[in-house]
């Protein structure tokens, strides 16, 4: 429900995120708004402290006293506006909203806006397209501007076209994806430069690239269709988000963020922009920026499964594993067969040092998607962490010969075990935080442990923070048993790992002052 009448003359509009009294807006902070929305949507039921932490504070750890003060401030605001007590505290249990609530019908939408709203769920299914170091993420494709599409075809054909296009946006089966691409290319011949078709084609090629065919040719198709969409439809936010997702998979985070900024100017209230922005920041290691972006998306659409998926990914980077596990467990129940959600589960298990559990989980996932470069990369790491270096080498060799962002680092991991190293270390186009680890691994493959430690500290300064890479036996062996290894090298490596652990732990809890 988009609107609620509270008491006699208060109106909570969820769509506009506003509280008004007789048409005049009541000033509320973002946190107070989320608190009010949570209490109203649960009324007349009690809302526990734990539920408030999850739905209102969204991962920030705060004390019961902080919650009490925030509720008290909101109560004062509502009581001043409604002249009635609105929130009752039940000691030790939680809070209950007591004003009479009358759900109201949302505004009537035009054909254009109605299409945009209804397509949200369908286009959200693309949201798990991109996942880095695990590259899982969330492409909730932008809602197309019906006017630009209608300029080429009449209204009836427009509806039919977009309805058909939407059928191809949630595909994961390889044969279905190939059939979808074939049909969309036929539609593109019939309706040239239509943003819905161009964006859908780009998205399908990205899925194909990630799950079945990690070749430069496949990625280039995705990029070309996304570029064409943005070129011929410069007023469509959807096209820039699609292009940003393709650029992220190319490792070009700066360019991706530039495209996101363009989309944000066209559609500043659209969650897809913030989800993609969060993903780009996360993969570059900018956890704080990623958290800010995904929290905006989550505040707007907390039930969107792909907003929750990217939020879980960011929670993993913040070492908030229990929160991430809760999100992923719920998503697995809803989207159990989706490989990107299952990849997120592997990343969580590795990050929380559950290596044996990760091995069991990955074995099944890799058997289903043996050509996925994301799955195979995690499989290699999981095997190495579980003392199966030969199986890890098998996977790294597969990746070393594929056109993906993991090609160079896979060659370096192979070189640590004595395999020939043909890596030129030309990773200027790869802006993912993992690329800084490559800079450190390269001298290590040459037996230069001290230079490795220098570069590793530089990598951490550039936001590299994935601890389990440093726990891999091939890395530890190369550092501690190398030709230039000394007691000082050993101690320095231990100190760096300890500092990284502490740094990651500090990301978990962030207490912030209350703002009215």
UniProtKB/TrEMBL annotation:
Residue ranges of domain OmpR/PhoB-type in the record: 1-99
Ranges that cross the membrane: 120-141
CDD domains, per database record: trans_reg_C
Keywords from the named record: DNA-binding, Membrane, Transmembrane, Transmembrane helix
DNA bind region: 1-99
Tagged with keyword Repeat: no
InterPro entries xrefs: OmpR/PhoB-type_DNA-bd, Sig_transdc_resp-reg_C-effctor, TPR-like_helical_dom_sf, WH-like_DNA-bd_sf
Pfam family, one: Trans_reg_C
Protein name, UniProt field: Winged helix-turn-helix domain-containing protein
Organism: Pseudoalteromonas spongiae
């Amino acid at each position: 429900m988009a609107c609620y009448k509270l008491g006699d003359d208060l109106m909570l509009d969820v769509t506009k995120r506003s509280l008004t009294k007789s048409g005049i807006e009541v000033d509320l902070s973002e946190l107070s708004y989320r608190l009010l929305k949570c209490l109203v949507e649960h009324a007349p039921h009690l809302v526990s402290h734990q539920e408030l932490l999850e739905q209102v504070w969204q991962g920030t750890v705060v004390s019961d006293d902080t919650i009490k003060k925030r509720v008290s401030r909101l109560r004062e605001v509502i009581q001043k506006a409604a002249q009635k007590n609105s929130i009752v505290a039940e000691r030790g249990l939680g809070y209950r909203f007591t004003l009479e609530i009358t759900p109201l019908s949302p505004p009537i939408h035009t054909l254009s806006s109605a299409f945009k709203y209804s397509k949200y769920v369908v286009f959200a299914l693309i949201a798990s397209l991109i996942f880095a170091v695990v590259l899982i993420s969330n492409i909730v494709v932008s809602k197309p501007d019906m006017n630009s599409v209608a300029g080429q075809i009449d209204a009836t054909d427009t509806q039919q076209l977009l309805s058909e296009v939407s059928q191809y946006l949630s595909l994961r089966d390889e044969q279905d994806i190939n059939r979808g691409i074939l049909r969309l290319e036929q539609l593109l011949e019939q309706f040239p430069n239509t943003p819905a078709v161009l964006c859908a084609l780009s998205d399908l090629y990205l899925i194909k690239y990630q799950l079945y065919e990690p070749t430069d040719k496949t990625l280039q198709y995705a990029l070309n269709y996304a570029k064409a969409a943005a070129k011929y439809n410069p007023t469509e936010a959807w096209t820039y988000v699609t292009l940003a997702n393709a650029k992220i998979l190319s490792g070009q985070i700066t360019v991706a963020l530039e495209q996101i900024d363009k989309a944000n100017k066209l559609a500043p209230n659209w969650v897809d922009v913030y989800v993609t922005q969060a993903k780009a920041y996360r993969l570059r290691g900018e956890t704080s920026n990623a958290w800010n972006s995904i929290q905006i998306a989550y505040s707007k659409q907390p039930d969107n499964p792909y907003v929750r998926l990217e939020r879980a990914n960011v929670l993993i980077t913040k070492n908030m594993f229990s929160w991430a596990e809760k999100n992923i467990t719920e998503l697995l129940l809803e989207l159990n067969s989706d490989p990107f959600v299952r990849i997120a589960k592997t990343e969580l298990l590795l990050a929380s040092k559950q290596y044996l559990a990760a091995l069991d989980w990955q074995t099944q996932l890799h058997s289903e998607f043996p050509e996925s470069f994301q799955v195979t990369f995690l499989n290699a790491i999981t095997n190495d962490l579980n003392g199966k270096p030969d199986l890890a080498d098998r996977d790294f060799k597969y990746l070393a010969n594929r056109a993906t962002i993991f090609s160079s680092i896979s060659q370096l991991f192979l070189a640590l075990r004595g395999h020939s190293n043909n890596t030129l270390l030309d990773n200027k186009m790869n802006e993912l935080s993992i690329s800084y680890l490559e800079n450190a691994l390269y001298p290590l493959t040459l037996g230069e442990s001290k230079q490795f430690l220098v570069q590793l500290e530089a990598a951490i300064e550039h936001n590299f923070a994935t601890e389990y890479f440093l726990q891999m036996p091939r890395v530890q062996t190369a550092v501690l048993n190398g030709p230039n290894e000394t007691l000082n090298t050993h101690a320095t490596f231990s100190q760096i790992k300890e500092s990284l652990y502490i740094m990651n732990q500090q990301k978990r809890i962030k207490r912030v002052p209350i703002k009215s």
